[in-house]
Design brief:
Distance between the termini: 58 Å
CATH superfamily of the largest domain: P-loop containing nucleotide triphosphate hydrolases
Oligomer: single chain
Order of helices and strands: HEEEEHEEEHHHEHEHHEEHHEHEH
Number of helices: 12
Helix content: 25-40%
Strand order of the largest sheet: 1-2-3-4-5-6-7
CATH topology of the largest domain: Rossmann fold
Shape: globular
CATH class of the largest domain: Alpha Beta
Length: 363
C-alpha cells in the first residue's frame, strides 16, 4: 500500500512543503501552467532521465529538486550531484540552458544552491523559497553572492581604525561566502555606527533587498532607529532614512517597502508564531524576560513553523546587536528560520558566541 511506502510518504510531505510556499504540484501527465505562477512537476522527463521535480515559473523552467526518502538524509551530498546533472540536462519540449536553482531534500531537510554563485555552495534552508522570490532573483544577471564580490573601496573619512577594520574584514568574509561573522568591539567604540556603515554598503552596492537589525530591548531599538535617522554616508548628502526605508517593528506588520527592519528578537519570535505579544517583554534582555521564562516553563515554547506571510527569504542579512544575549534557547530557531547572512555585534562574547559564529571573528 502506498501509505506504507517510505518514498511515497516522503514525497507527500515534500508536496505539502512545496504547496505551503506557494507552489502548485502537478503530475507530468497533467501539466497545467495556468494553475499558478509556480508549478512543480513530478517526474519530468530530461535528457538524462526523469527529474523528481522540475520547477517552472510563468511557464519557464528554473530549477530542479532531487528528493530522497528520510533515511537517506545523510546521502544528500550524492543527491547534489544528481540534481546538478538534471539542472544541466535538456528538458522534454524545451531547448533550455542550464537551470540555475537546485534543491536536494527529504521530507525533513532541504538543501539549496544557486548555480550562478561563485563556487556554488549547498546550504540548508528551513523551507522552500516562494516562486515569486526565484522569479525576482532571475531578474538580475548576478546573484547576491556574486554581487558581494564587487564592493568598491571603503571611504574611511570619519571612521576610526577599529571601524575600518570591521567593515573591510566583514566584506572580505561576505566575498568568501561565509554565512556567519562576529564583530567584537569595545563598548563605546561605535558598534551601531559601524553596522549602519556596512548596511548602507550592502543596500547600495550588493543590492540587498531587506536587512534585519535585531536588538535586545525596545529602548535599544529606539536608539538604533535614531542612529539610522542621523547617519549621513560619505558619498551622499542625504541622510540614510532619505535614501532607504527604515521600519521599527511595533506590531506583526512588515512593510514590503522596508529595506531595514529594526526589531527585538522577542517580537520576531511572536510574529513567526502568529501570537500576540506582551509588549512589556521588549523592555528587558530576552534571557531575563519573565515572558520568556513563562514560555519555557509552559507548553507554549514550541518550535517555529513555516509562516507564508514571513517567508524564509524575507531578509538577506540579519545584524544581531548584543548577540551574546539573543542567540541561544528559544531565539536560535528564529535565526535558523531565515535564509540570511548573520552578523553578530558584541563587546563581551563567550565560547558559545564564538562557536555560533563558526569562530569567524572579523574584528
Amino acid at each position: 500500500m502506498s501509505n506504507q511506502n517510505p518514498e511515497q510518504i516522503a514525497r507527500d510531505k515534500i508536496d505539502a512543503r512545496l504547496e505551503e510556499a506557494g507552489w502548485v504540484v502537478q503530475s507530468n501527465n497533467r501539466v497545467d501552467f495556468s494553475a499558478g505562477k509556480g508549478i512543480a512537476v513530478r517526474e519530468y522527463q530530461t535528457s538524462v532521465g526523469p527529474a523528481d521535480y522540475v520547477l517552472f515559473v510563468n511557464h519557464k523552467p528554473i530549477g530542479v529538486i532531487e528528493a530522497k526518502r528520510d533515511e537517506a538524509g545523510a546521502k544528500l551530498d550524492m543527491a547534489a550531484e544528481q540534481a546538478t546533472d538534471y539542472a544541466k540536462a535538456k528538458l522534454k519540449y524545451y531547448n533550455n540552458d542550464s537551470l540555475p536553482f537546485i534543491f536536494e531534500c527529504t521530507s525533513k531537510i532541504i538543501y539549496f544552491a544557486d548555480l550562478r554563485d561563485p563556487k556554488p555552495r549547498h546550504r540548508e534552508i528551513f523551507a522552500f523559497f516562494k516562486p515569486e522570490t526565484l522569479e525576482e532573483w532571475l531578474k538580475t544577471d548576478k546573484s547576491l553572492r556574486r554581487r558581494m564580490l564587487d564592493f568598491p573601496e571603503l571611504d574611511t573619512t570619519g571612521l576610526r581604525p577599529a571601524q575600518i577594520s570591521a567593515v573591510t574584514n566583514l566584506e572580505k568574509s561576505f566575498s568568501d561566502n561565509r554565512p556567519r561573522a562576529l564583530i567584537q568591539m569595545a563598548t563605546g567604540a561605535g558598534k551601531t555606527f559601524t553596522a549602519i556603515t556596512f548596511i548602507y554598503r550592502l543596500l547600495k552596492f550588493a543590492k540587498a533587498k531587506r536587512i534585519l537589525f535585531l536588538v535586545d530591548t525596545r529602548n535599544l531599538g529606539e536608539q538604533a532607529e535614531q542612529e539610522f535617522m542621523n547617519f549621513r554616508p560619505n558619498d551622499d548628502n542625504r541622510k540614510f532614512t532619505e535614501l532607504y526605508n527604515v521600519q521599527r517593528l511595533t506590531s506583526s506588520y512588515i512593510a514590503n517597502e522596508s529595506q531595514v527592519c529594526i526589531s527585538t528578537i522577542q517580537r520576531l519570535y511572536s510574529i513567526l508564531k502568529g501570537e500576540e505579544m506582551d509588549d512589556s517583554a521588549e523592555d528587558t534582555n530576552p534571557n531575563e524576560s519573565t515572558w520568556l521564562q513563562q514560555k519555557l516553563k509552559s507548553q507554549e515554547a514550541v518550535p517555529v513553523e513555516y509562516t507564508p506571510k514571513v517567508p524564509i527569504e524575507q531578509f538577506d542579512f540579519i545584524v544581531i546587536d548584543e548577540c551574546h544575549c539573543s542567540i541561544y534557547n528559544l531565539w536560535k530557531q528564529v535565526l535558523d528560520y531565515f535564509d540570511a547572512f548573520l552578523i553578530g555585534l558584541t563587546a563581551t562574547p563567550d565560547k558559545r558566541t564564538f562557536g555560533f559564529f563558526n569562530e569567524n571573528v572579523v574584528s
